[in-house]
Amino acid sequence: MRTPVDPTSVSTDQSALRPVGPESLSASSLFAGWLDDLMRQRRLSNRRLARRTSLDHSTISRVRRGLMLPSLETAHELAAALGSSFVVGRPTAYPRPEPLIPQPRSVP
After folding, report:
1. Within a domain: residue 50?
2. What's the mean pLDDT when you consider all of the chain?
3. Burial of 85: CB neighbours in 10 Å, binned 0-12, 13-18, 19+
4. Which domain CATH number covers 70?
5. How far is 30 from 2, CA to CA, in rounded Å?
6. Rounded distance, CA 39 to CA 89, Å?
């Protein structure tokens, strides 16, 4: 299990975030859904989560809406602030998404 990130050791540099392009749409959507679900479960606003991290509330809003994808360091910081963990590739405790293209059914 990953240890929580000390907020004082995390850079507030905006280079920790990058604008979302076509190549990262699924990753940003998945992360945004995970973040939004946890924030709703914990009844946290963007501003309250921002106080627990080194991020601005508007940056959290952009990440939450899937407009920006955080760096791994920032993702771990958000997870720690939410009392959760983050595994590279997929957030923990988040269901695998259903395929967008229906799988063919075998005919008997």
Report:
1. yes
2. 74
3. middle
4. 1.10.260.40
5. 20
6. 20
Residues spanned by the domain of 31: 23-91
The pair of structure tokens assigned to 70 is 């955080």
Rounded distance between C-alpha atoms, residue 47 and residue 103, angstroms:
42
Which of 22-26, 29-33, 65-69 is the least confident region?
Answer: 22-26
- Looking at the whole model, is its pTM more than 0.85? no
CA distances from 60 to 26, 107, 108 (A): 18, 48, 50
Query: CA 36 to CA 9: how far, in whole Å?
Result: 25
Per-residue model confidence as pLDDT tens digits over 40-62: 999 999 999 999 999 999 999 99
Helices (H), the chain: 25-41, 46-52, 57-64, 72-81
**3 found inside a domain:** no
pLDDT digits (tens, 9 = 90+) for 8-27: 444 445 555 555 555 444 67
